[in-house]
Amino acid sequence: MKISKTVIPEVLTIEPEVYGDERGFFFESFNQRIWRQSTGIERPFVQDNHSRSVRGVLRGIHYQIRQVQGKLVRVVAGEVFDVAVDLRRSSPTFGSWVGEFLSAENFRQFWIPEGFGHAFVVLSESAEFLYRTTDFWAPEYERCILWNDPELNIRWPIDFAPLLSDKDGKGTLLKDADIYE
Question: Is the pTM of the predicted complex or chain greater than 0.90?
Answer without folding.
Answer: yes
